[in-house]
Specification:
The complex is a heterodimer.
Chain A lengths: L1 E4 L2 E4 L6 H12 L8 E2 L5 E2 L10 E2 L6
Parallel strand pairs in A: 1-5
Antiparallel strand pairs in A: 1-2, 3-4
Chain B lengths: L1 H15 L2 E8 L9 H14 L4 E4 L8 H4 L6 H9 L4 E2 L10 H10 L3 E2 L4 E2 L11 E6 L2 E9 L18 E2 L2 H6 L10 E7 L2 H10 L5 E3 L5 E2 L4 E3 L2 E4 L7 E10 L2 E11 L7 H10 L8 E5 L6 H16 L3 E4 L12 E4 H7 L5 E8 H11 L9 E3 L1 E8 L7 E7 L10 E7 H6 L9 E6 H9 L4 E2 L7 E6 L1
Parallel strand pairs in B: 1-2, 2-3, 3-4, 7-9, 9-10, 10-13, 16-25, 17-23, 21-26
Antiparallel strand pairs in B: 1-14, 5-8, 6-7, 12-13, 14-15, 16-18, 17-20, 19-23, 19-24, 21-22
The chains are: A alpha+beta, B alpha/beta.
């Protein structure tokens, strides 16, 4: 499925969590692995095991 | 004059007096029974302020703790604890379906409270009868609660299709639209949902008749509630870190003000009675169960990794499986009994297992990349063998010089193979395959438990499927 981490497209397996998606994003970008906190598009913090779905946006810094 | 003043005073008093309604909302507890004693303390404190408060669960009460999930009545230990706390109502989360319809029926029947869910439909023979909503009355205030569960693109919640056999699900949005009439029958209308925060936003946009949404699924921490289209949306992250406290002032049958806050649970003292019940739940002999006997001491980590990879192959039904050597947390294992506890020592991570189809070329590239991210060494495999050359420096990809299937035939770069591996590999390999794959319904430890319990004896001593030459 396709999710968006920091507005960057990330292809990740179906059933992935926020942590899986962020790890994929960090690996693709050559960044150190980020373990949290993560936020949604409204600036709410989300748990690292938050289930991802197609098209979901998450951020590694608060969007507020 | 006196009569006029008296009537005016009465009228003023009538409009000034509002009833306060308190709702505690919890979501995605995921069987974190260790935090239930703190929740019990919180609920008791809040009930002292408002004995009529409603305690609601927005689903995914279970799944996340073998003490709750893996006994002969899956999920019921959590229900026992929820009964002790006198929960008023719960909806379904996707994980309520994890053990299939018969277990779900047992789980529902064990509860002293009801489950509500408007968008699930069952046959008469399944004995799973849940109402779409329930109306409570507290201090003369009618509080309606409508339940809704998320439905994925497959037409079922995010659960294994086999576990939803015989159950039908409708779109939560289409379903919600059919219940707007509840507004006329309630002073406070709550949507108790397991949709995820983003879908709660969409729901609020199409259902402004609701006063609030007590939500779940996305494990979102909504600090002070989010108001969307006049609807107060709440969610308390997960695993009993918080509970949402919603407060409504109701006057003349209408909510005149509402607010929400998160109450943290971690630092509260444990309620002793609840703690005793938790200890009772953890006295199940689950972890002591012997799965198999190890015939000879397994002296190498790679051999244990091969056993774990074989387990993935079996469970995911794939040609090949890969286990990162860093994911094997024991260096050796003695001859004798191997228990469930030993499995969790070997693989404590709870990583999801992915089933994928990829070309031989992609498979080789992914294998080669893993020594670039795992300083423990080369990955273990099932269904194949390989030889490789690796630079002496740490964290450099290796170069595979030979790769064969278990039958000795070479791996064809253009052929397609089914491969199982864990979510850590999927997320961190620098050579991900084109197709990202799909997680199966077991984690690594569960795969290993299922594999080992089928065998009276295992002998993995000396099993080696890789030859890695270190090159200076």
């Amino acid at each position: 499925m396709i999710v968006y981490v920091n507005n960057t497209t990330v292809r990740i397996f179906t059933g992935a969590t926020a942590l899986d998606a962020v790890r994929r994003y960090c690996t693709d970008a050559g960044l150190p692995l980020c373990e949290g906190p993560f936020y949604d598009a409204w600036g709410n913090q989300i748990a690292t095991d938050s289930p991802m779905c197609d098209g979901r946006h998450i951020f590694t810094t608060s969007s507020l | 004059m006196k009569k006029t003043c008296f009537i005016s005073l009465l009228a003023l008093l009538g409009t000034a007096l509002a009833e306060q309604v308190t709702i505690l909302g919890i979501n995605d507890m995921h069987a974190n029974i260790d935090s239930v004693p703190q929740l019990s303390t919180c609920v008791k404190q809040e009930r002292m302020n408002d004995p009529g408060l409603l305690l609601l669960a927005a689903g995914d009460n279970r799944t996340g703790n073998p003490y709750v999930d893996n006994g002969n009545r899956p999920g019921v230990p959590m229900i026992t604890l929820m009964n002790h706390l006198e929960f008023d109502l719960s909806t379904f989360g996707n994980h309520e379906f994890d053990s299939g319809p018969a277990a779900l029926r047992d789980y529902i029947n064990a509860a002293d409270f009801e489950f509500v869910c408007a968008n699930v439909f069952t046959t008469d023979t399944q004995g799973i009868n849940v109402k779409p909503y329930k109306i409570f009355e507290r201090n003369g205030v009618r509080i309606g609660v409508l339940g809704l569960v998320q439905v994925g693109e497959s037409g079922i919640p995010d659960a294994h299709p086999d576990k939803c056999a015989g159950l039908q699900f409708a779109s939560p949005f289409d379903t919600a639209a059919c219940y707007k009439h509840l507004r006329a029958h309630c002073d406070v209308l709550i949507l108790l949902t397991h949709l995820g925060f983003e879908d709660d936003i969409k729901l609020a946009q199409m259902f402004p008749e609701a006063d609030a949404i007590v939500g779940g699924h996305s494990h979102t921490r909504v600090e002070k509630g989010h108001v969307e289209n006049g609807v107060l949306i709440t969610q308390a992250e997960n695993k009993l870190k918080y509970v949402s406290k919603l407060t409504f002032d109701v006057q003349d049958g209408k909510v005149i003000s509402k607010k929400s806050e998160l109450l943290p649970l971690a630092d509260l003292p444990a309620d002793e009675a609840a703690a005793d019940l938790v200890e009772k739940a953890k006295s199940l002999p689950f972890f002591k169960r012997q799965l198999t006997t190890v015939k000879r001491k397994i002296t190498r980590r790679e051999s244990l990794g091969c056993m774990m990879a074989d387990a993935l192959c079996m469970r995911a039904i794939t040609d090949i499986a890969i286990v990162n050597i860093g994911g094997v947390r024991l260096d050796d294992f003695p001859a004798g009994p191997l228990t469930v506890a030993d499995v969790y020592r070997m693989d404590p991570f709870g990583n999801a297992i992915i089933r994928n189809t990829m070309s031989g070329k992609e498979l080789i590239a992914m294998l080669e990349s893993l020594t670039g991210s795992d300083h423990h060494g080369a990955p273990c495999v099932s269904g194949m063998t390989y030889k490789a050359i690796k630079p002496a420096a740490e964290l450099k990809p290796m170069r595979i010089t030979e790769a064969k299937l278990a039958d000795g035939s070479p791996i064809d770069p253009e052929a397609r193979y089914t491969v199982a591996y864990n979510s850590y590999i999927a997320s961190t390999t620098s050579a991900p395959p084109e197709n990202p794959g799909v997680a199966i319904d077991s984690d690594g430890a569960e795969c290993l438990i299922r594999f080992l319990e089928k065998q009276k004896e295992v002998d993995y001593e000396g099993v080696s499927r890789i030859e890695v030459q270190i090159q200076d």
